[in-house]
Amino acid sequence: MFPLTSRASVWNTVALICFFPLCTALAQKTSQELRALARERLAQIDGQLNVAGLDSAVEVRRDQWGVPHIYAKTQHDLFFAQGFVAAQDRLFQMDLWRRIGEGRLAEVLGPSYVARDRFARLLKYRGDMDAEWTSYAPDTRDIATSFVAGINAYIALVRDRPPVEFTLLGYLPEPWTPQVPLQRMAALAMTGNAEYEVLRAQLVNAIGAQRAAALWPTIPHHDLDPAPGLSLNGISTLSLGAYAAAVGPVSIPRVVGSNNWVVSGALTTTGKPLLANDPHRYLDNPSLRYLTHLVGPGWNVIGAGEPGVPGIAAGHNERIGFGFTIVGMDQQDLYVETLGSCGSVTVASAARCYLNGGSWKPLRQVVDTILVKGGAPRVVTLEFTEHGPLVNEEVTKDADGHSRGFALRFVGSEPGTAGYLAQISVNRARDWTSFMSAAARWKLPTENLIYADVDGNIGWIAAGLMPKRAWSGLLPVPGTGGYEWNGFRTVGELPRAFDPPNGYIVTANHDIRPQGYQLPLNFEFATPFRAHRVTQVLRNRGARKFSVQDFERLQHDVYSMQAEKLIPLLLAAARQGGRSARWEYETLAHWDYVMRSDETAPVLFEFWKRALSSTALRRAERNETAQAIVGEGRWIDEWEEPDAPVRLFARATGDSLMLAAMDTAMARLRARLGADSTTWRWGALHTAAFPHKVAAAFDLAPVARGGDGSTVNSTSGPDYRQSSGASYREILDVANWDRSVATSVPGQSGQPESDFYGNLLPLWARGEYFPLLFSRAAVERETKHVLWLKPVASATSR
Q: What confidence score (pLDDT) does residue 690 get?
């Protein structure tokens, strides 16, 4: 799910569309009154609820951390209850997710969301529905139908008194259809190559391909390959239409992702594998992730997923544990289409055509209506070429009366590409063979799926639907022909490992291709600092055996290998320039490169690094357009790599840049934190906030953070604050599943005033875990609430 917007803009929307006396009264309520209203709307999580649609009674035990353990007698009831329980805790979040995916935000939030809604409708799956349903698992349709029925049962129960956010925004939740979990928008941002294509196109147009490649290098290195004859002039982020609004602000990619690793029993204290996973996404309130335990016929699986999708994305069943990190396969291409009249082509009178393969072909058109709160319905015409939806079109025409349109080819148009839904096959895998069969169904988003089983095996596969193309995919290409996908890689062509001799597997969004694997996956891998640090700890263990507690510490490791690499260069330049005695250099000279929140050195390092990037960029490139596109991009991370931008400078010039950047950093620090440097602390500036989307009365207090985007405990974000990272972590002990642990933030419930709304934030802030309870006995010992869901016909008996 994607964050809808800032709270301020939501409140501005309320001010515009909520003009009834009730809405005015709500907007004027005090914090105490809003909190009282929220308490009135809390879900019932104890006792009994009579629910139509169940086969038999379902038991829901919530433990003291808010994790629901669901026990059902049929598969239908199990997923019905999962939908019901998720809606109890997250209905408003789920409703926004549904509306984002279906293109129905304007219906409740007003005219400013029309363009975004239109874009979502362009990306709707419109292919073969039988192929779509069966791609994830043979029984996907039944599972999704049951799951949605549970959501709808809860909506029916609370429709007149829904969670407080609905009342504040002036609308009511509506029933779902089984197709809602099939939406494509949720995974769009994780396949975001198209926005990078247009930025690179702007850069190439401004300074040429060779210079562009130097300023914004790829990982791994690949020369830029502009399509011959295609003008890149005029291509910009505007060419993508509402893409940016749909996925958030467009910027030079600085990949911040996830970590996972798995080690064999030869390296652990138990003699069985340990699996650690901390998927990183934006931090939000409520969290993107939701933990559930599903127990029923053929099912006993626990872990976290997204609340709008049935099943578990990262967790374990009785025999295997699994986790994921983003691979980042290039699953998008932007095609520059030539649009014009259809000439002699016989088409409907309203149709237009595009040029492909030397002939004109009619655009496929779909007329749709977007409902708008506070305004008239908007009738929109959605147009498609064979490459995908036409996301934008230039107004100007050439001498022949042709215009340029931009079509987005996205794997989401293929069956089986709803984000994470293939998890329902992974959840039932029992061994490596069945896990690989499930991984073959995993198409979107592309994930490093890691594996451990009770027999002692470990494994990994880079799973996803990878297009075959004969060009790099780094720049837009003409739609007139010659740049077509040639199918997709089979699961047998994807990189993998099983029981490697070294006893461990590590992925952290870096270039994970094994030695000798030549097939391209993408050129936007993350820099390898996190992966190198985890590997360093695993490799340099000596005779040590690892425990769950060791991996707890490693998941929260804030040692900066980036600082270890860069600071000695700065200190050498300071010695050469006679500056070593200055306070800032002495502070860094005594630093151990651990980015603790209560220390000063990390503040110096982060401000210096930012200043170095901007200073070096200005000296390396005078073109203002290029400076704006590259910004403070990731290229500073490779400062000392053989093909990095430092080659743009002589060594002495590089030294002067580093010293000048420190002078700039100190000036910025004094302006930001005051003249007294003894009070400068990283955690005073580097915080994570958890505001409520609608009302400040429900905000949670920000917490100080250590680390940065390059540490294992990744805490990246703009303006030195953390906005993304591991909202969920798991460490799975195959030897005894009850010894597995997890963290999540800020809480299981999205309902303000719930006991589980912000209860996990203090644990997360301190780097502490809670047990991921699995056995019935362990769950019963820690149960705090018991809710029975009873079919209406048998409401009087258990």
A: 97
- Residue 742: Cβ-neighbour burial (10 angstroms; 0-12, 13-18, 19+): buried
DSSP per residue, 66-103: S-EEEE-SSHHHHHHHHHHHHHHHHHHHHHHHHHHHHT
Q: Is 442 exposed, middle or buried (0-12, 13-18, 19+ CB in 10 A)?
A: buried
The whole-angstrom separation of Cα 398 and Cα 188 is: 33
pTM for the structure as a whole: 0.94
Residue range 576-623, pLDDT digits in tens? 999 999 999 999 999 999 999 999 999 999 999 999 888 888 888 889
CB 267 within 8 Å of CB 541 = yes
Alpha-helical runs (H) found in 590-636:
601-620, 624-630
Which residues lie below 8 Å from residue 257, measured CB to CB, with a gap of 6+? 280, 325, 326, 328, 508, 509, 526, 714
Rounded CA-CA distance 94/307 in Å is: 7
Q: Which of 53, 49, 82, 54 is nearest to 68 (CA)?
A: 82
Only one residue has tokens 């939740």, namely: 173
Given this model, what pLDDT does residue 527 score?
86
**Residue 706 near residue 602, CB atoms below 8 Å:** yes
Q: Which amino acid is residue 486, in one-letter code?
A: N
In 3D, which of 44, 40, 147 has the Cα closest to residue 88? 44
- To 10 degrees, the CA torsion angle through 250, 251, 254, 256? -30
Cβ neighbours of 32 (radius 10 Å): 9
Q: Which of 593, 374, 338, 577 is nearest to 480 (CA)?
A: 338
408 membership: H or E segment, kind and range:
strand 403-410
Length of the chain as a residue count: 798
Please name which of 74, 75, 45 lies closest in space to residue 60, comparing C-alpha atoms: 45
- The pLDDT tens digits of the residues spanning 496-536 come to 999 999 999 999 999 999 999 999 999 989 889 999 999 99
Distances (CA, A) of 572 to 7, 588, 619: 46, 12, 21
Query: Distance (Å, rounded) from C-alpha 334 to C-alpha 388?
Result: 9
Distance from chain centroid for Cα 442: 16
Q: Give the Cα separation of 232 and 235 in Å (integer).
A: 6
CB 434 within 8 A of CB 421: no
- C-alpha dihedral, 745 to 747 to 750 to 753, nearest 10°: -130
Closest by CA position to 616, among listed 672, 586, 659, 678: 659
Q: Are strands 314-316 and 299-305 parallel, antiparallel or unpaired?
A: antiparallel
Please, how many CA atoms are within 13 Å of residue 594, restricted to the half-sphere of its CB? 7
Question: Confidence class of residue 636 from pLDDT cuts 50, 70 and 90?
Answer: low
